[in-house]
From TrEMBL:
One of its GO terms (molecular function) is pyridoxal phosphate binding. Residues 9-224 form the Alanine racemase N-terminal domain. This is Alanine racemase. Keywords: Isomerase, Pyridoxal phosphate. The lineage of its organism: Bacteria, Pseudomonadati, Bacteroidota, Cytophagia, Cytophagales.
């Protein structure tokens, strides 16, 4: 059976690298755990590292974290739906918000539960996902800052999450200025400018981060060590915290081209025939993982001697050429993963999850 392995030592090294960088500049941060899809064993690894703030987009995952360690500060990182507000207030200490009515509902629920709920107001800075337009921000804050059982602890933003807009010093300075305007106008203190996600880390590393930004929400760079500006591994970090292993369940020498009348496959794809391949063959391997688990474009074969031809719902098809390494049925092949590949596999109940040193 295919399985996903988490390398404990590499996760710890990545965590300590980031922790040192943030401590050097006095920046608070939390770990975005949504990639782990609520896997209890993997969440325990975060707790073991000493993480004191965890962010997630699923309330059930935050509930598991509170069971593991009630003292961890939990942050719900998408605008909550009305029907989930009761559970959200119960399990999330902080939430990211951009709708007035939602915050009013949160205030009402927090009163019922006898809790103080913290809010980060999300501000639109160009990527056009969630966020209050800057021109409306002062009026927005005026409508909520006196709501009972609500404390606004930050202004935040998301970039590169929908349309690929990258963070810049100018955008982050603007967010810091909004914070200053609100503090002066309302004589209130807002502790955080939460403008840092994994895509913002290169600005931090190259000393280009505006001083006002003092809170980060980090997922992808923790788990993949990636500089998202240059799409490369940050020196001193590891890209291979996760490893996928899949077993060969068939190995046959077959023609390179199919025979018969061609139509669309179940994925809606129609094969384009390369006539130069007629009469040629290669060794094909079928692995015990498929589209139900992961899109092949997110897999990174460790062995460069084969190519991924495609996948059906439960099987991955490889072209091994002449099979120079002599792979056989029962052999296990190793793959690295891109972020979306790891997310898909973590969400699949058909792939085992393991931990090693």
């Amino acid at each position: 059976m295919a399985y996903l392995n988490l390398k404990r030592s590499k996760l710890e090294a990545n965590f300590n690298y980031l922790k040192e960088r943030f401590q050097e500049q006095g920046i608070a941060w939390g770990v975005v755990s949504k990639l782990l899809c609520g896997n209890r064993s993997f969440l325990k690894e975060l707790v073991r590292l000493g993480v004191d703030e965890v962010h997630d987009s699923r309330i059930s995952n935050l509930a598991k974290l509170k069971e593991i360690n009630p003292d961890i500060q939990t942050v719900y990182i998408k605008p909550p739906s009305k029907r989930n507000i009761s559970k959200m207030v119960k399990y999330a200490d902080v939430s990211l918000n951009s709708e007035l009515n939602t915050i009013r509902w949160i205030s009402e629920e927090a009163q019922k539960q006898g809790k103080l709920h913290k809010i980060i107001i999300m501000v639109e800075t160009g990527d056009l996902r969630e966020g209050v337009m800057g021109d409306h921000l002062v009026d927005f804050y005026a409508s909520i800052f006196e709501l009972p059982n609500i404390e606004v602890i930050g202004l935040g933003t998301n970039l590169n999450c929908l349309n690929g807009v990258m963070p810049s010093a100018d955008k982050l300075i603007q967010l810091s200025l909004y914070k200053q305007i609100i503090e002066l106008k309302f004589n209130k203190s807002i502790p955080w400018v939460s403008a840092g996600t994994s895509v913002t880390i290169p600005l931090l590393l190259h000393q280009q981060l505006p001083k006002g930004v003092n809170h980060f929400r980090i997922g992808e760079t923790l788990f993949f060590g990636v500089d998202l500006f240059e799409e490369k591994t940050i020196e001193g970090m590891h890209h291979d915290v996760f490893e996928l292993y899949a077993e060969i369940i068939e190995m046959q020498e077959k023609p390179l081209l199919p025979t018969g009348t061609l139509a669309a496959n179940p994925q809606g794809e129609v094969l384009e025939i390369d006539e130069s391949l007629y009469g040629k063959s290669s060794f094909r391997a079928i692995l015990d993982i498929g589209l139900l688990d992961v899109d092949p474009k997110y897999l990174l074969p460790e062995d460069g001697n084969f190519e991924i031809l495609g996948a059906s719902s439960d099987m991955l098809i490889l072209n091994l050429g002449t099979n120079p390494k002599g792979y056989q049925v029962g052999d296990v092949l190793k793959f690295g993963l891109k972020y979306m590949g790891a997310l898909s596999i973590m969400n699949s109940s058909y792939v085992d999850k393991k931990i090693s040193e």
